[in-house]
Design a protein that fits this description.
Its EC number is 2.7.13.3. It comes from Halogranum amylolyticum. The chain is of the alpha+beta class and 390 residues long. It is 63% helix and 11% strand. The chain folds into two domains: 4-168, no CATH class; 241-384, Histidine kinase-like ATPase, C-terminal domain (Heat Shock Protein 90). It is built from eleven helices and seven strands. The protein has a five-stranded mixed beta sheet with strand order 2-4-5-7-6. The termini are close together.
């Protein structure tokens, strides 16, 4: 069973629609390049909560029970706004949507505040006065701001849903083109290349035919990986299970050692006796195999070295794959992490890491890139730790 702390956090995430309240620190660092806007927008929500909290706290000293109850409710709502502002800065929302939510918050304060001030002026003109006007205004503003923040969350989710719908349409086109036409053409090219390589006497022509066949096989592999990516995203986050990631890492290392006998593949587990369980997509094993295969195939050395590591904290399990190769190009890492757009001038050399990215996305995990100790690449896959292994 899940621990009470994790259950509470899951309830908070679902209630506030913040999918990554407890994500690793590096996620906020790479979210996008709107850092200042994000801080200002989320900070405005927190400042609203703090400003409204003060008059509620000063009203907790005494008075009728009803007034004390209103002060308690207003204090909780105001403090909740303060926490929501902090959570927004680390949430899965883009900076644009964080700004959108903060604008809704501001709209609630301005509109309801204006109405309240107008009513106070009107009461003054009638010769009557409102008792505890500051508290009354703050109480209503807190509830109004909270309601508008909730509306902002739904609005941001709606915008994101529309964006995802457009992306799905693009993926559907990619699906039809690559999975069918490109794969079929690659198969034909590879077949004719093999025939030419075996049937010509001229060694130069035979080498050219083998090059054609090899590149056709690469194209076919791209089509297969594209099929896997589309399948994973189409299925979405509906296939979570608890997996012993240690066993999957060891299996991936063993498979790589069999497939690439010249490669040195090692596994280093932080706690030698521990079994690390994670909640992940059913294609987690495929993602791990792609990580190891990518590290070996793009190494360039006759005897590539690949080191797999496994570490964990209370909430996350981290799989690291380090190599001594030339490293992943900076522009490809930027595209994979979402820091750069996928354009004709900024494209990846393959789709293996995109399969890993797809599994990370639907598993609510994090894909990261570092430089390895040997100057190559270190790819990390962080997954949410499971409390209930099956």
């Amino acid at each position: 069973m899940s621990t009470p702390t994790r259950t509470f956090r899951a309830v908070v995430r679902d209630a506030l629609m913040l999918d990554t309240l407890d994500e690793p620190t590096e996620v906020a660092d790479r979210r996008d390049r709107g850092g200042l806007r994000r801080v200002v927008a989320s900070g405005s929500v927190s400042l609203t909560g703090l400003a409204l909290l003060v008059p509620h706290l000063t009203h907790l000293g005494g008075g009728p029970l009803l007034g004390l109850s209103l002060a308690v409710i207003g204090s909780l709502v105001s403090f909740g706004l303060f926490l929501v502002g902090i959570a927004l800065a680390r949430s899965g929302f883009t900076t644009t949507n964080v700004v959108r939510i903060s604008v809704w918050n501001l709209l609630g304060v301005v509109v309801l505040g204006s109405v309240m001030v107008a009513n106070l002026v009107y009461q003054t003109q009638l010769g009557t006065t409102l008792r505890a006007p500051t508290f009354t205004v703050a109480n209503l503003l807190a509830l109004g701001a909270a309601a508008h923040v909730i509306i902002g969350f739904y609005d941001a989710r709606r915008v994101r849903a529309e964006q995802l719908a457009r992306e799905r349409q693009k993926i559907a086109v990619l699906n039809r083109v690559i999975r069918h036409n490109l794969r079929n053409s690659a198969t034909v090219l590879q077949g004719h290349g093999d025939i030419l390589a075996d049937g010509v006497d001229d060694e130069e022509l035979a080498n050219s035919a083998r090059v054609v066949s090899r590149h056709a096989a690469t194209i076919g592999s791209l089509a297969d990986n594209a099929k896997e990516i589309i399948r994973i995203y189409d299925r979405g986050a509906v296939d979570y299970e608890a997996y012993n990631v240690r066993a999957l890492v060891e299996d991936a290392a063993a498979e790589a050692a069999r497939t690439y006998p010249d490669a040195a593949v090692t596994v280093d587990v932080a706690d030698g006796d521990a079994e690390y369980w994670v909640d992940a997509d059913s294609d987690l094993s495929l993602a791990l195999e792609e990580l190891v295969e990518n590290a070996v195939e793009h190494n360039g050395s006759e005897t590539p070295t690949v080191d797999l590591s496994l570490t964990a904290d209370d909430d996350w399990v981290t799989v690291g794959v380090s190599d001594d190769g030339p490293g992943i190009p900076a522009h490809e890492k930027a595209v994979l992490t979402g820091e750069a757009e996928l354009t004709q001038l900024r494209h990846g050399s393959g789709l293996g890491l995109w399969v890993v990215r797809a599994v990370a996305d639907v598993s609510r995990g994090v894909l990261g890139f570092e430089e390895s100790a040997t100057g190559g690449s270190r790819v990390t896959l962080r997954l949410r730790r499971s409390r209930s292994p099956q």
